[in-house]
Amino acid sequence: MRQLDWLHRWTGGLIGLVLAMLGLSGTVLLHRDAWIMLPHAHDTQVADNAAVVGALEAIMADPHSRPGSVLFATQSLGLNRLTYADGSGAYTDQSGAVVSRWDSVWGRPELFLFDLHHHLLAGDTGEWVIGIAGLCGLFFVLSGLVLWWRTRRTFRFRLLPSRLTRPAILWHHRDMGVVLAPLLLLTLFTGTSMIFRPVAALVLGPSAPATIGAALKAPESAATPLADQPDWRQIVRTARQHFPDAEIRLISLPKQDGGPITMRMKQPEEWLPNGRTMLWFASDTSRLIEARNALLLPSQVQWFNTFYPLHAAKVGGLPYRLVMTLVGLALTLLGSLTVWTFWFRRRPSTRHAESRRPVTVE
């Protein structure tokens, strides 16, 4: 038990600040649509075919300056978001008129926070660091439950430490961690599984990573050049024919020459905010290559598709979002105070240390 306690403290001292940053940035991102203050940001969502086609034709009109993807407006944010290959982007209203532009994620606070939370502003390397921090967080919760059991009779829940002293912070850390352990496990597990898919096998079974990878893989198709003016009207009409009740969420142009145009749709039964119902269209003729219904995917994939909505509070409305806000703030508090008590705790004074020395009788 002493070795477990030592490992718990040392790992927390080394990785606690990363977890605190993830907790704070994630908490702010839970409410990001509410604090985007731009013209038309709170317009009512218009999702009919004519509006989608009109926006696409306006946005994609110039073959030399069109974006790589278009994320359409939602009920909580009335703006389309454009993403370009060089990392720049723009918001447009639902007719396709540009409202705001930026050259990098540093140009918009919500995009900066998103990249910080998902990549530590360091691309794939940062994502790996976050995944490792998530694994450490799972270890903290599980080992903390084991260590708490010995002192369970002294349990007393507090939202904040009674004093900013090391003993008070440690008691608060222990008891708050136990109360929020189920939600912390949910948050850390879902976040880590989205980075390291093999972690999902702990819940979904050993075959889950391979099944998920196969289900999300784009279909093989003949390489065709991207047309100067894809037939957006045909693309939207075909998508609606296959999934009449679904909402068109995302259009992506091929990242490599010869690839297909990709569309993501969200059916009413899906939890993912952008859905996982996928359609692929030939880049030159706009003909349908394949349509994939998210509701008919293997059960392991459907369960995996619930991880992000649960992690980011995209289901459950305001009550669940407030619960996850509490979890994010608790993770911030637990991580930051752990680092503070581990590295910057006050050392005993000389007088106190002298009083504890054994007296030698000559």
Layout of helices and strands, plus pairs?
Elements: H1 2-29, H2 49-59, E1 69-71, E2 80-83, E3 89-92, E4 98-102, H3 109-119, H4 123-149, H5 166-179, H6 181-195, H7 201-204, H8 208-216, H9 232-242, E5 247-252, E6 261-266, E7 277-281, E8 288-292, H10 299-304, H11 307-311, H12 317-343, H13 350-356
Antiparallel strand pairs: 1-2, 1-5, 2-3, 3-4, 5-6, 6-7, 7-8
Helix pairs in contact: 1-3, 1-4, 1-12, 2-9, 3-4, 4-5, 4-6, 5-12
Organism: Blastomonas fulva
Transmembrane segments: 12-30, 128-149, 176-196, 322-343
InterPro entries: PepSY-ass_TM (IPR005625)
Summarize the structure.
The chain has helices at 2-29, 49-59, 109-119, 123-149, 166-179, 181-195, 201-204, 208-216, 232-242, 299-304, 307-311, 317-343, 350-356, and strands at 69-71, 80-83, 89-92, 98-102, 247-252, 261-266, 277-281, 288-292.
Structure overview:
With 362 residues, this protein is α+β, with helices and mostly antiparallel strands. Helix 1 (2-29) packs across helix 4. 48% of the residues lie in helices and 10% in strands. It has a domain at 2-30 and 120-195 and 316-343.
Strand content: 5-15%
> Could you state the order of secondary-structure elements as H and E?
HHEEEEHHHHHHHEEEEHHHH
Tally of helical runs: 13
Mean pLDDT: 90
How are the strands of the biggest sheet laid out side by side? 4-3-2-1-5-6-7-8
Regions with little confidence, pLDDT below 50 for 5+ residues: 349-362
Termini, distance in Å? Answer: 40 Å
Q: Please give the number of β-strands.
A: 8
Write down the overall geometry.
elongated
Estimated radius of gyration: 25 Å
Structural class: alpha+beta
Q: Roughly how much helix do the residues carry, as a percent range?
A: 40-55%
Sheet bearing the most strands, described? 8 strands, antiparallel
Keywords: Membrane, Transmembrane, Transmembrane helix
Protein name: Peptidase
InterPro entries: PepSY-ass_TM
Transmembrane segments: 12-30, 128-149, 176-196, 322-343
